[in-house]
């Protein structure tokens, strides 16, 4: 079958050069090259046909900053409104404008009128374009419906898909943290995995508290809440972010999806939100009552750097031993699951995340024992297992009576060999305790962190494994009184999927981080 190749314009993060402290300094960029770059940005963000998902083919042919890609590697149709790329371009143009005055003056002092006119033109065009981009990004948004399957196409019985509709707002300012206004490919992929394999991620257990860090549009929190409702064990779910505009958009998304994630009826006869109407055991009611409100997912502001600084101060005050710091509700109690997608794009982010994991993830000795958890589960759910042989332990009638997602073959796990099959997501998992180690129980507290592997963020992503040690690299705890350490338990490589994410996301990496 012939491969179709298309020419697509390059994204700003891949072509815009780093600007020195002075545009005319040792690392200066040629003026004509700057002018061509600004023309390329104008093609992307100020083309005549504003409604087009891509610039016209004829316009793309005129820019030197484009390349041929295979059809299954095309740029996300939303790339013109990609918050990260747009903010990257705006910040770069803003630097050109701010440093342009001295740059123009240098040409004037040298008596080079022609060079001065060229530099003035560059600064004027940069200022005009950044003004247009910030003005047009003040309004408008993109509604993105996501239909998440909860079972494989050939599963019997079939289960109702989960429909989440997200508002992907455009960036509203030069603040780079506004990238959280858009849904990212990594969050979509992890959301699909949670919807297809809820038990693998620890869903289905009572009294569960989940916290999403850097929630952005809130997709992971919405899916987690929706699946917990369908399994009859509603979780407390808290979505957090730092940027005020992102939090406002997050709350709108929660409100818009409340009916979808907390339906009156679902494949598992999901209970109502109000625990008083559900008939749950008293322990469940007391646990849920602390956060019951009009919204099924609670949105809160959280500053990771403040958590990190508070813990560092605490360690300095306690002879180098970090202890949890006191925080207001809902952060005053630990969480059984932490989630994050595409939140590491700076050199300090991994360290801040580690402090959040140490602060918020419940310790193993504080979590119920597996026996206690199993006893508290309904019989049908307690009999389910990640083991493929679990289904054979129930008779056929019981299996048909429970319309829950069966364990799908979402991906294969292997310690070395590359997976040959091509399902919707192809992945291989590396258990850091060794290839012969048994799978970790789904009920163990964990932090699930998924990141895209982009060339522009390679250094930032590399800090994850510098900050979080691998489990097998740590010495066993000397005694039951020895402190727990957070470490990487498994790493799963996931190939890029057509139609999901951006073209520069070569693949994805999912970390399971836990106490050891």
UniProtKB/TrEMBL annotation:
Superkingdom assignment: Eukaryota
Pfam families (alphabetical): Methyltransf_16 (PF10294)
Sequence segments annotated as region (Disordered): 52-80, 387-406
A molecular function GO annotation: S-adenosylmethionine-dependent methyltransferase activity
Protein's recorded name: S-adenosylmethionine-dependent methyltransferase
Organism: Rhodotorula paludigena
SUPFAM superfamilies (alphabetical): S-adenosyl-L-methionine-dependent methyltransferases
């Amino acid at each position: 079958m012939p491969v179709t190749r298309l020419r697509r314009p390059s994204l700003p993060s891949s072509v815009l050069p780093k600007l020195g402290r002075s545009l005319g300094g040792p690392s200066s960029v040629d003026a004509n090259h700057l002018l061509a770059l600004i023309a390329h940005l104008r093609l992307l963000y100020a083309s005549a046909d504003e409604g087009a998902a891509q610039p016209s083919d004829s316009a793309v042919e005129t820019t030197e900053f484009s390349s041929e890609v295979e059809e299954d590697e095309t740029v996300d149709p939303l790339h013109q409104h990609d918050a990260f790329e747009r903010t990257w371009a705006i910040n770069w143009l803003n630097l050109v404008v701010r440093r342009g005055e001295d740059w123009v003056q240098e040409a004037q002092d040298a008596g080079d009128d022609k060079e001065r006119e060229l530099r003035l033109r560059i600064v004027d065009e940069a200022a005009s374009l950044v003004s247009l981009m910030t003005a047009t990004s003040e309004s408008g948004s993109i509604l993105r419906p996501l239909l998440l399957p909860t079972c494989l196409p050939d599963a019997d019985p079939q289960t109702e898909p989960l429909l989440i509709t997200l508002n992907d707002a455009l960036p509203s300012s030069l603040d780079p943290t506004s990238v959280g206004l858009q849904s990212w490919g990594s969050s979509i992929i992890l959301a699909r995995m949670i919807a297809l394999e809820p038990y693998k991620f620890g869903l289905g257990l009572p009294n569960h508290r989940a916290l999403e860090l850097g929630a952005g549009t809130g997709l992971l929190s919405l899916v987690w809440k929706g699946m917990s409702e369908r399994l009859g064990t509603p979780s407390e779910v808290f979505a957090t972010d730092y940027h005020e505009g992102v939090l406002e958009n997050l709350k709108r998304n929660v409100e818009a999806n409340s009916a979808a994630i907390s339906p009156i009826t679902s494949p598992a006869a999901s209970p109502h939100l109000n625990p008083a109407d559900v008939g749950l055991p008293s322990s469940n009611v007391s646990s849920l009552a602390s956060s019951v409100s009009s919204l099924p997912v609670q949105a809160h502001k959280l500053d990771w750097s403040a958590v990190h600084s508070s813990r560092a101060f605490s360690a300095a005050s306690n002879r180098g031993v970090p202890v949890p710091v006191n925080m207001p509700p809902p952060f005053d109690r630990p969480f059984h699951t932490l989630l994050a997608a595409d939140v590491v794009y700076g050199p300090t982010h991994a360290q801040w995340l580690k402090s959040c994991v140490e602060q918020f993830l419940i310790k193993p000795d504080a979590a119920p024992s597996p026996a206690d958890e199993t006893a508290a589960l309904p019989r049908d759910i307690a009999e389910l297992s990640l083991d493929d042989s679990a289904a054979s332990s129930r008779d056929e009638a019981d299996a048909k009576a429970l319309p829950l997602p069966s364990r799908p073959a979402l991906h294969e796990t292997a310690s070395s060999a590359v997976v040959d099959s091509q399902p919707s997501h192809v992945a291989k998992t590396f258990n850091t305790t060794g290839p012969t180690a048994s799978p970790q129980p789904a009920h163990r507290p964990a932090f699930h962190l998924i990141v895209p592997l982009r060339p522009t963020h390679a250094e930032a992503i590399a800090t994850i494994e510098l900050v979080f040690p691998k489990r097998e690299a740590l010495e066993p705890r000397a005694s039951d009184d020895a402190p727990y350490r957070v470490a990487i338990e498994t790493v799963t490589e996931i190939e890029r999927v057509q139609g999901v994410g951006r073209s520069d996301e070569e693949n994805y990496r999912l970390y399971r981080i836990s106490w050891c």
